[in-house]
C-alpha cells in the first residue's frame, strides 16, 4: 500500500536478516516454541499432558493463522490470549493445556530475550566483517605517512594505516560490550504474574524443586543456560538498557569513522567508493558527495538516541510491572537494531572500497612538513656549531613569515628557502631537504599498526569462524 507510512528502516536501509528477527513470523513462532517448551517440560515433570498434544503443537509452530488471531483480539482485546486461542484453533486436542500456568510475559519477555540474542549475534557478525575489511586497508597503508590532526589543525605525521587502527580499536571495544551482553543474557523463565511462581507451585502441589526443574528445562530447550533468579512479572528492563547501550556504542564508532572519512574526502586524500554512473548532485555534475558516510552518520545518530528510551523505561517500572514499557519497547528495540544493521552494511561497503590518493596526501605533507621539521633543523644547526638560542629565534621569525605568506597570498611554503638563505644556519637547501623525509616523522606508527593488527585484530578474525554458528537465527 502506498497510502500509508512505512518505515524507511525496512523499505530502504536494514537487511532482510535483521528485519526477519523483528518480524511477526519470528515473534509468534517463538511464542509457539515457548508454549511447546512449556507443555513438553510440564509433561516430563509428570503433569497430565500427552505426547500427542505436544506433537500437535509442534506441528503448527510456523503456520501462524494471523486472521484467526486478529478475530480473537478484536473480541478479547488481549494480544497474547488472542494468539493462545488462534494456536488452539489449529491444535484442538492441545487447546486446554496451551499456556498452562503461565502469564503473558512468559511468551512476550522470553521471546524478546531470544530476539535480542539473535539480533546481537547478527550485529557481532557484521562488526567482525567490517573489521576484516578495515584490516586489509590498514595493513596495506600501515607505513604511508599522512598528516595527523589535533583540533583539526595539522599536528604531527601519522600513517593512513595507523589511523584505520583507531577505527578498528573502537570496534574491538564494541565487541567486548556485545560479548558481555551475550554472556550475561538470561531467560525470564516461568515466573508468573508477579514473579512468585505461585501458579506453578500450585501445579506441582507445592513442590519447589519441580518448579525449579521446570524452569531449567524450558531454558535449555530455548538455548539458554540461565534464568533470572528473581523478577517481577518481566525480566529486568535494565537489560534492555545494557543492550541498547552496546548497540549505541557501535553507532558511535561508525559515526566517528564516517565523519573522519567525510573530512578526508573534503581534503581529497581518501574517498568512499563512487560508482561510475553515480550522480553526486542534481545541480553540480562534478560533485562526489560522501553520501554513504553521510547516511551512516544520519542513521547512527538515531541509534545513539534510543538508549534514552531504555533508560527511561528501566527507571520507571512500578514495583513488579507497569505496562507503559510495552509500546515504547515495540519501537525502541527494533529501531535501534535496524538502524545499526543499516549502518554496518554501509560501513562494510565503504571499508571494502576506500580509495587513497597518495600524491594528494604527499602534497599536504609538503605544505606542512617544513614547520614540523624545524626542531630537527634546529638540532642539526647546533650540531654543526650554531647557537641554539639564536637559531631558535631565526626559525621563529622565518616560520611566521612563511605561514603568513601561505595564508595571505596563497603561495607555497618557502620556509626551507628562507632558512637556506639565512647565513646563521650552517647548511644549504640540499642538506635541509634531506631532513624532510616524511617517514622519519611518523614515529612508531607503522610498528604500532602492525602490532595492533597481528596481536589484537587477527585473533578476533581467526575466532570468528568458530563463532559463526552463533549467528544462526532460530525462527
From TrEMBL:
Catalytic reactions on record: (2S)-2-[5-amino-1-(5-phospho-beta-D-ribosyl)imidazole-4-carboxamido]succinate = 5-amino-1-(5-phospho-beta-D-ribosyl)imidazole-4-carboxamide + fumarate; N(6)-(1,2-dicarboxyethyl)-AMP = fumarate + AMP
Occurrences of domain Adenylosuccinate lyase C-terminal (ranges): 369-453
Enzyme class: lyase
SMART domains: ADSL_C
Molecular function in Gene Ontology: (S)-2-(5-amino-1-(5-phospho-D-ribosyl)imidazole-4-carboxamido) succinate lyase (fumarate-forming) activity; N6-(1,2-dicarboxyethyl)AMP AMP-lyase (fumarate-forming) activity
Pfam families: ADSL_C, Lyase_1
InterPro entries xref list: AdenyloSucc_lyase_C, Fumarate_lyase_CS, Fumarate_lyase_fam, Fumarate_lyase_N, L-Aspartase-like, Pur_lyase
GO biological process, one term: amino acid biosynthetic process
EC nos: 4.3.2.2
Pathway annotation: Purine metabolism; AMP biosynthesis via de novo pathway; AMP from IMP: step 2/2; Purine metabolism; IMP biosynthesis via de novo pathway; 5-amino-1-(5-phospho-D-ribosyl)imidazole-4-carboxamide from 5-amino-1-(5-phospho-D-ribosyl)imidazole-4-carboxylate: step 2/2
Keywords: Amino-acid biosynthesis, Lyase, Purine biosynthesis
Gene Ontology cellular component annotations, sorted alphabetically: cytosol
Domain of life: Bacteria
Transmembrane segments: none
Family: Belongs to the lyase 1 family. Adenylosuccinate lyase subfamily.
Name used for this protein in its record: Adenylosuccinate lyase
Taxonomic lineage from the root: Bacteria, Bacillati, Bacillota, Clostridia, Candidatus Alectryocaccomicrobium
